[in-house]
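Page 47, continued from p. 46.
Same chain as before, 324 aa.
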Amino acid sequence: MDAGRIGVGIVSDRLILAHLPTPVHCLPRLSEWLGTEVWVKRDDLTGFGLSGNKVRKLDWLLADAQRKGADTVITTGGLQSNHCRATAVACRQLGMQPVLLLRGEAPSVADSNLLLDQLLAAELHYCTAEEYSLHRDTRMLAIAEQVRQRGGIPYIIPEGGSNAIGSHGYVAAGRELLSQQPNGFDACCLAVGSGGTLAGLALGPDIGQTIGFAVCDDATFFTAKVHDIAAEAERCGFEWTLRDNWHVNDAYRGEAYGVAGPEVWDIMATVARLEGLFLDPVYTGKAMLGLVQEARAGRLSGRVLFWHTGGGFGLFGRGHEVRT
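Result:
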């Protein structure tokens, strides 16, 4: 592969898609407002079209796809999935065909991530929420068979890139953080939507108490997901140990996935005003609300890190929800 031509290369078992290391810095005005020292790890800066946490996983997943000779990558997510958009961008950078199974109906006019998916000429398939919940893996297997029948070589990536291979990205990210802040933090907070980012951090070096704020399913679901990924990693022979100092908090997930109440929009506006930092209503807004409320309740103190997992494209098309 001509790494210089497309800006992508291979190092060991991973690609270089993400712009790393991402910065980590203090948020002084937010810290003063909250009365707790808050830092941010800027994984919203992993790249423009590839921005967010998903690309760290794709570094490893798409390297595996290339090793297996795949020319077509199939993955799944919601209609405005950050993971699906990042996968489609990465596939085009690597000369591969992206195929996306999206939960929802095709709108008459696309915006945000779906608009980018269309610009990238991703092959789009749609399914109902019920189909997605019960049969998305079966649907992806069927699509993979269609790819084979037309002479392609498919590679399937699960929702969010959340499996043992993808979690390599956040095991490595934990090491990256400690190279920047060797003493770690008293607490590290992040949004959890499919479990792979939290699993990687929990399987990596000790960066401090790690709190995943669920944005959809409950704490029981995501706790089981992290343990499932840890078990898969062990079966694969990855020499990782699941730390004890992590947990999932589901108190701030709101009404449903992608649904943000006024308190989420308020905290997003506060952070933007104080720090010029944009959050999104699906993931990081809910996680920041959790951080703020837990700090105010006295359950978070000391040096607290907010792991910004991206999602900025999710702001667009939702201006009608902003309170003025």
